[in-house]
Amino acid sequence: MPTTLGVIPARLASTRLPGKVLRPLLGRPMLQWVVEAAMRCPQLDEVIVATDNEQVAKLCENNGWLCQMTDPDLPSGTDRMRAVALQREAEIYVNIQGDEPLLKPEHIDALLRPFARGPQVECTTVKTACSPENITNPNAVKVVNATDGRALYFSRATIPYDRDAHIAGDLANGKATYWKHLGLYAYRRPALLRFGTLEASPLEQTERLEQLRLLENGLALYVEAVDFDTVGVDTEADIPRVEALLRERFGR
């Protein structure tokens, strides 16, 4: 039984960028960049792709990657991850988005670090310093947490609200520290299995942020800081930006 299993949900029918996990980045499918990035993380005992699409499954087969077909009606990547957990036992499951080709081992280090504190840590995620231009950007999700690292809230709004900086009209130079949430998660097995039994929560539906379901139902979600941002591919405009970063990192 692997201690830590990396799961890459890879749904082809993306709303904003259809077929994006198979879209080429520097001549290679995006999913290939993501899988290879995950495989470079020594903390992961195994990496598996969870998909509902035969094209994605074929790409996995051709490259010798572990793959599990999941129900196409599952509503989220976390539900696909849970489907994997029902068939493959592990102590900790790491959710790696299929559109995060800039994943680094340092991200996995940060995700796994809080579990050493004890069994009270049920799930984890990561944050990085929010750039000034993203403070008011609703597509950059912000997070605030308690002094022990437990998440208090996630929002597309600017949290915390720096009252004095708003009055002064210069939000970016206010006293508050803003943290951008990165869409990577790790779960102990019981927490992941419980997730699938929970109804979509009111805050989750309002903000369109799945992690709020965990908070509203009292699961202990801890947040760890990292120095490295990631750049997800959500729109056509993101592709050249990510390609430039990949070229810079790998010299391709």
Automatic annotation (TrEMBL):
It is found in: Cytoplasm. It catalyses: 3-deoxy-alpha-D-manno-oct-2-ulosonate + CTP = CMP-3-deoxy-beta-D-manno-octulosonate + diphosphate. It comes from the Bacteria. Its main location: cytoplasm. Pfam families: CTP_transf_3 (PF02348). Pathway: Nucleotide-sugar biosynthesis; CMP-3-deoxy-D-manno-octulosonate biosynthesis; CMP-3-deoxy-D-manno-octulosonate from 3-deoxy-D-manno-octulosonate and CTP: step 1/1. One of its GO terms (biological process) is CMP-keto-3-deoxy-D-manno-octulosonic acid biosynthetic process. It is an enzyme of class 2 (transferase). The keyword Lipid biosynthesis does not apply. GO terms for molecular function: 3-deoxy-manno-octulosonate cytidylyltransferase activity. Its EC number is 2.7.7.38. Keywords: Cytoplasm, Lipopolysaccharide biosynthesis, Nucleotidyltransferase, Transferase. One of its GO terms (cellular component) is cytosol. CDD domains: CMP-KDO-Synthetase. Belongs to the KdsB family. Activates KDO (a required 8-carbon sugar) for incorporation into bacterial lipopolysaccharide in Gram-negative bacteria. This is 3-deoxy-manno-octulosonate cytidylyltransferase. It comes from Terriglobus roseus. The gene is kdsB.
